[in-house]
Design brief:
By secondary structure, the protein is of the alpha+beta class. The chain folds into two domains: 6-53 and 148-312, D-amino Acid Aminotransferase, Chain A, domain 1; 57-143, Dna Ligase, domain 1, CATH 3.30.1490. Helix content is 31%, strand content 24%. The chain has ten helices and 13 strands. It has helices at 6-12, 17-28, 34-38, 40-49, 67-74, 115-126, 233-247, 277-281, 285-298, 302-312, and strands spanning 57-61, 81-85, 95-101, 104-107, 112-113, 139-143, 161-167, 170-178, 194-198, 205-210, 213-215, 251-259, 263-270. It is globular, with a radius of gyration of 19 Å.
């Protein structure tokens, strides 16, 4: 294993956790605004007020006695669905069902489960098993996203999403997270999803990593990441940057998915976005954040901020 010295990390502009927490999250994210992003129901309602597309909400389960009625509702659905904790983090507690066959429900991985297992999973969500701080939670029932087929080869058994880090309305760094068999169809890098760094200027892939190592092809589909270019890139940057004003948070991560019909949709927001995006881009956040501050100090215009970011952070 090759180690990099602290001095070299400093030269590369790698943002560490302490500097992120103190210099950006602590300084630009007021605690009173956290609830809007930590609670996915509140995020969804705020987005709808601003006419930002989000996955359809089919229902909310708040009490244990509601669970049996929920499974009866699911048996009437003719579409896939997702059950997730309203206050979950890191992809924990998300159950993705792509279809139903008789009395069996088929997960994105192909594993079959029954209604009793769905009830157990939902009960665990309400008990706080997957929520931040272990607090009692609510379960959200959402329609499964019909994701854009142009990205189908870049994800396996799950929906790929795009994470954009935005600072004071300036898009700073982006990656696509591609589900794999190892990650159980979830776009979670720690579970084995592939992170693909994206050029802020164009939406083209820069490089891809899995478990911190560079890869060139998707491990399950064989798709070449060098050929990837994200469609609707203008709308994605616009959506991510708009979330700064919507939440009142100066530093955040916006997770966006591409729906076949509606295009970019906001999946969720994160007030404490992780730092692995630097590995996917093979670039540090610190230098870019310094430039983003200059841009934000120079102009309050939303579109001008995005334009300048695309010019300053273009790759190659």
């Amino acid at each position: 294993m090759r180690f990099i010295s602290p001095r070299r990390l400093e030269e590369l502009g790698i943002l560490g956790m302490n500097r992120r927490n103190i210099g950006y999250i602590g300084q630009y994210n007021a605690r009173r605004n956290y609830r809007l992003v930590d609670d996915k129901l509140q995020t969804k309602r705020a987005a709808l007020e601003r006419e930002i597309p989000v996955p359809e909400l089919l229902g909310v389960i708040e009490r244990q006695h509601q669970i049996r009625g929920m499974t009866q509702q699911l048996e009437l659905l003719d579409q896939g669905f997702v059950i997730k904790p309203a206050q979950g983090s890191g992809g924990k507690g998300i159950l993705v069902i792509i279809r139903r066959e008789g009395d069996r429900f088929i997960k994105s991985s192909g594993v079959e489960i029954d209604a009793a297992e769905i009830r157990r999973h939902t009960s665990n969500i309400l008990a706080g098993l997957h929520s931040l701080g272990g607090r009692n939670d609510r379960a959200m029932l959402e329609a499964l996203i019909d994701f854009d087929p142009c990205l189908a080869d870049y994800s396996y058994e799950g929906v790929p999403d795009i994470r954009v880090i935005a600072f004071r309305g300036v898009p700073v760094m982006a990656m696509m997270r591609c589900a794999t068999h190892v990650s159980d169809g979830k776009a979670n890098l720690h579970q084995g999803a592939v992170g693909v760094g994206l050029d802020i200027a164009t939406g083209r892939s820069i490089r891809a990593v899995q478990f911190g190592l560079l890869v060139h092809n998707h491990p399950d589909t064989g798709a070449n990441f060098e050929e990837l270019r994200i469609p609707h890139w203008d709308r994605i940057l616009d959506l991510a940057s708009s979330c700064v004003d919507m939440t009142g948070l100066g530093y955040l991560g916006a997770d966006i998915v591409l729906d076949r019909q509606q295009g970019p949709m906001l999946l969720e927001l994160n007030a404490r976005p992780g730092l692995a995006i630097q590995v996917a881009n093979q670039a540090g956040l610190r230098h870019r954040l310094a430039i983003a501050k200059q841009i934000a100090d120079e102009t309050d215009d939303h579109h001008r901020k995005i334009e300048l970011a695309r010019l300053r952070f273009a790759v190659g």
